[in-house]
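Write out the bound-state structure for 2-acetamido-2-deoxy-beta-D-glucopyranose.
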Amino acid sequence: MQFCTLVLVSALLPFLSTGYTSIVEHVDNLPTQEFDFVVIGSGTAGNVITNHLTENPAVNVLVLEAGGFDLNTKVPGFFGRDMGSPLDWNFTANLGLATENRMGTVVRGFVLGGSSAISSMVYTRRSDDDWDHYADLTGDSGWSWDSIQQYIKKNETFTQPSDFHNISGQFDPTVHGFDGISSVTLTSYVHKFDDLVIQSSLLPDAEIPFKLNPNDGNNIGLSWGQAMILNGERSSSATSYLALQFRKRSNLHILLHAHVTRILRMEDDHETAFSGVEFTQDAGATFQVINATKEIIVSGGAIGSLNILYNSSIGDAETLTNLGILSTLDLPSVGQNYTDQGIVDYIWIVNSTDPNDFLSQDESVREGQLEQWEQNKTGPLADGALVTGCFFRLPDNASIFETVKDPSAGPNSGIRNLRVPHAGTQRVHAGDAGDAGDAGTHYPLLIM
Ligand SMILES: Cc1cc2nc3c(=O)[nH]c(=O)nc-3n(C[C@H](O)[C@H](O)[C@H](O)COP(=O)(O)OP(=O)(O)OC[C@H]3O[C@@H](n4cnc5c(N)ncnc54)[C@H](O)[C@@H]3O)c2cc1C
Ligand SMILES: *[C@@H]1O[C@H](CO)[C@@H](O)[C@H](O)[C@H]1NC(C)=O
Ligand SMILES: *[C@@H]1O[C@H](CO)[C@@H](O)[C@H](O)[C@H]1NC(C)=O
Ligand SMILES: *[C@@H]1O[C@H](CO)[C@@H](O)[C@H](O)[C@H]1NC(C)=O
Ligand SMILES: *[C@@H]1O[C@H](CO)[C@@H](O)[C@H](O)[C@H]1NC(C)=O
Ligand SMILES: *[C@@H]1O[C@H](CO)[C@@H](O)[C@H](O)[C@H]1NC(C)=O
Ligand SMILES: *[C@@H]1O[C@H](CO)[C@@H](O)[C@H](O)[C@H]1NC(C)=O
Ligand SMILES: *[C@@H]1O[C@H](CO)[C@@H](O)[C@H](O)[C@H]1NC(C)=O
Ligand SMILES: *[C@@H]1O[C@H](CO)[C@@H](O)[C@H](O)[C@H]1NC(C)=O
Ligand SMILES: *[C@@H]1O[C@H](CO)[C@@H](O)[C@H](O)[C@H]1NC(C)=O
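---
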C-alpha cells in the first residue's frame, strides 16, 4: 500500500504545477462572489456543460464541487478501490420488493469528475432502442438514435490501446469518432482467458456470438470491451472536458470542498426565479451564498441534485410534507422513476498456481504490474473493468415473461449484460484465496 502511495504522489506533482490556477479550495480565493453561471457538481454532466459554457469568453462560470481532487483515480485498474472510499458519497437505498427490501449501497463519486472519476470506464452508447425510447418519452425526435449519433461521434476520440497491438478485427472504425473530447480505446492487456472467451463466441453454435462492435446500435453479442481510457490512464470528465487547455480559460473557476445545500429564490415570494446558491465548506458551521446573474445549473447527479432540490422546497408536495419540508414549488416528478443497475458477483475458484494469472495472489507480481503501469502505462492496470463483455437476451419464450414484462427497450438491447473483467483486479484480495483454503484464482463475473 505504502508503495502505491509513494508512486502516485510523485505523479501528482507535475500535474498540479501545470495550470490548476482555476481550481481553488476556499471561497475567499475566488475573484468575485457573483458569476453569470453557477454549475453545481463537477461530474459528468456538469463538466460537459461547463466546457461548453466557457467557450464564450464573455461569460464567467463557477463550478461548485463537494468533493476534492484525487489522482489515484488515474490508474484504470484501481477502479474498484473507490467504492466505499473517501471518493464515494456512500449512499444507501432500499433495493425494493424484489430483494425483500434489502438495503444496498449506491456508489456515487465524491470528487472532481464525479462518478466518471470512479466508474468502471465501460464505454457503452446503449442501443438504438434505448435512444428511440427517450425520443418517444420526451416527444423530441432530437433524442432518437439517428439524430444523436453525429454528436456522440463528434465528441469521441478513438485511440490505440497503450500497448499499440493490432486492433484490426476488434472493433469497427466506421462507428467511431477520432477527433473529439472523450477518449475511447480497447483493452491493452489480453490474458489467455480473454482469448478463450472470444474463441467461444466464434464457434459455429455459439450461444452468444461474436459482435464486432457493441456500440453500433445493436448491443447483442460478445465483443472486445471498449473503455474510456487514454494512453493507459482513466479518461474521466475531469481529464477530458476539464483538460488543461480548458482549465486555462480565464472565465472558468472551480471551488472544491463546496457542499451545496440549497438554491435560493430571488425574492421570498417568487416561486420560480432562483439566483443564489448556498453552500458550506465546514460541514454546516457556516454558509456562503454566491449569486448567478444568468443561470444556475443543478448537476449534482440523480441523488445529489434531488437532495438540493428537496432542501430548496422543490418537489412533490406530499413527499416534502412527509419529510417535514414546506413545499413552495410542487413538481411531482422530482425524485421519481429512479432505476439503477445492480451488480452481482459470481465467483469461480480456478485451481491455478501460475503467479501471472491476474493480480492479487502474489505481492511481487502486483508490484511489478504497478511498476509496469508507472513506466509504460501498460499491463493489467492499464485496463478498466471490461476486457470482453456481452449483452444477451433471454429467449422470448422464457418462462419469466409469463409474469414479468420484458424491461428492455427493444430487441437490440440486452435483458442481461455480462462483464468478464480481469479477474482478481480489486474485488479479490489476497486474503480471499486463503479463506477459500487453496491457491486458486478467483474469477468474478459481473452480471448487471
Ligand atoms: C462505481 C461506478 C461504476 C460505473 N461504471 C460505469 C461504466 O463502466 N460505464 C458507464 O457508462 N457508466 C458507469 N457508471 C455510471 C456513470 O459514472 C454515471 O452515470 C455518470 O457519471 C453520472 O453523471 P452525473 O453528471 O449525473 O453525476 P456524477 O458524475 O455523479 O456527478 C455529480 C457531481 O456532483 C457532486 N455533487 C453532488 N451533490 C453535491 C452538492 N450538494 N454540492 C456540491 N457538489 C455536489 C458530486 O460530488 C459529483 O462530482 C458508473 C458509476 C459508478 C458509481
Ligand atoms: C462536443 O465537442 C464540442 C467541441 O468540439 C463542444 O463544443 C461540445 O460542448 C461537445 N459536446 C458534448 C456533448 O460533449
Ligand atoms: C465514505 O465512507 C468511507 C469509509 O468509511 C469514508 O472514508 C468516506 O469519508 C465516506 N465518504 C463521505 C463523502 O463521507
Ligand atoms: C493488422 O491485422 C490485420 C488483420 O489481421 C492485417 O490485415 C494488417 O496487415 C495488420 N496490420 C499491421 C500494421 O500489422
Ligand atoms: C438544508 O439547508 C439547511 C439550511 O441551509 C441546512 O442547514 C441543512 O444542512 C441542509 N440539508 C441538507 C440535507 O443539505
Ligand atoms: C445575492 O443576491 C441577493 C438578493 O437576490 C442579495 O441580497 C445579495 O447581496 C447578493 N450577494 C452578492 C454577493 O452579491
Ligand atoms: C414514473 O412513475 C410513475 C409512478 O410510478 C408512473 O406512473 C410513470 O409511468 C413512470 N414514468 C416513466 C417514464 O417510467
Ligand atoms: C489444486 O491442484 C493441486 C495440484 O495439482 C492439488 O494438490 C490440489 O488438491 C488442487 N486443489 C483443489 C481445490 O482442487
Ligand atoms: C517498459 O517498457 C520497456 C520497453 O519495452 C521495457 O524494457 C521495460 O522493461 C518496461 N518496464 C516495465 C516495468 O515493464
Ligand atoms: C423456446 O423456444 C425454443 C425454440 O424455439 C425451444 O427449443 C425451447 O424449448 C422453448 N423453451 C420454452 C421454455 O418453451
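---
Residues 166, 168-169 surround 2-acetamido-2-deoxy-beta-D-glucopyranose (ligand 4) (CB under 6 Å).
The chain has a mean pLDDT of 85.
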